[in-house]
Amino acid sequence: MKPIAITPVAADPVEARLQVGPKNLWYAVCPSHFLADQPVSLRRFGRKLAIWRDDAGQLHALEDHCPHRGAPLSQGVVLGDRLACPYHGVQVRCDGTVTKVPGSPGCKLEGSRAALDFHVREAHGTVFVYNSDTHVDEPPPFTLPAELASPEYSNFLCYAEWECEWRYALDNVMDPMHGTFLHKQSHSMAEGENTAAFRVRDTEQGFVFEKTGQRGVNFDWTEWGITGLAWMRLEIPYPKTGGPGGNFAIVACVTPIGPQRCAVFFWRCRQVDGWQRDTWRFLYRNRLEARHWAVLEQDRVMLEQMEPEANQREHLYQHDIGLVRLRRLLKQVASEQVEAN
């Protein structure tokens, strides 16, 4: 894993909040296979997390910061639902409570809820963490889009870490027109017109940004939604040679890691069951997966080569109204959270 460059955060408190992502939301933080029998340290949404599994396989998360001296709890010993700090043996339970201070039994640190804890969920090969800077006894639920929530769909997770600001990755997905040009050699995005007019259509969860005169031909629309978790959704039409299941659905989440690094999650989904599900999964692993990674690599290279301040020197036009809408929405959320503090 590459080291994370530490750069100063923005002086503007709203921009500083946007750089690390809005609070009080669920975020996808890593694939499930990252967690085995040892704690893992991950930097996400401006914090360093210690995540581990207990003997029953249940996931827990604390800030990777021992309340005694700030040592990394992730380097410690797993004691079921507790971590024992490697520095002085201080034991911290998954709810943030210090249960034992071996070097000074009975001290005031024992029994205090001195560590920041995080709620964790696991679904579809992914670990989700609720991002709050205070203790939350009962986190709000989150709802996944139908392509992940319904058993009628089968999916594969594509996970990567990109060396770019997380909002660049959001803008990329909220820009259907780039598929016509950047991905024009792709087996799934070579069709349709290379000019288009777009519109924004509101939904209960957010909004859809779509082409007005073309549907079911190329990358023709993107949906943004917040259902306790912020996600994006789109469809790519597939020819019959792509196997059963109709259009190819993609659900995406992006999580900030550092000022110029983010974690991207793309679930590739199709509505299939029975023998068609088996056929589709075999076909994906043996033919389609490599092609999809090639498309993601094109996005990664493009975004990583953009200057960090590129979005400060833009000349936007009608194709960009979707990302403008998204930027305004995120800024509104960040402004409200800063004011609330």
UniProtKB/TrEMBL annotation:
<keyword id="KW-0479">Metal-binding</keyword>
<keyword id="KW-0223">Dioxygenase</keyword>
<keyword id="KW-0560">Oxidoreductase</keyword>
<protein>
    <submittedName>
        <fullName>Aromatic ring-hydroxylating dioxygenase subunit alpha</fullName>
    </submittedName>
</protein>
<dbReference type="Pfam" id="PF19112">
    <property type="entry name" value="VanA_C"/>
</dbReference>
<keyword id="KW-0408">Iron</keyword>
<dbReference type="Pfam" id="PF00355">
    <property type="entry name" value="Rieske"/>
</dbReference>
<keyword id="KW-0411">Iron-sulfur</keyword>
<keyword id="KW-0001">2Fe-2S</keyword>
<dbReference type="InterPro" id="IPR050584">
    <property type="entry name" value="Cholesterol_7-desaturase"/>
</dbReference>
<dbReference type="InterPro" id="IPR044043">
    <property type="entry name" value="VanA_C_cat"/>
</dbReference>
<dbReference type="GO" id="GO:0051213">
    <property type="term" value="F:dioxygenase activity"/>
</dbReference>
<dbReference type="InterPro" id="IPR017941">
    <property type="entry name" value="Rieske_2Fe-2S"/>
</dbReference>
<feature type="domain" description="Rieske">
    <location>
        <begin position="26"/>
        <end position="129"/>
    </location>
</feature>
<dbReference type="InterPro" id="IPR036922">
    <property type="entry name" value="Rieske_2Fe-2S_sf"/>
</dbReference>
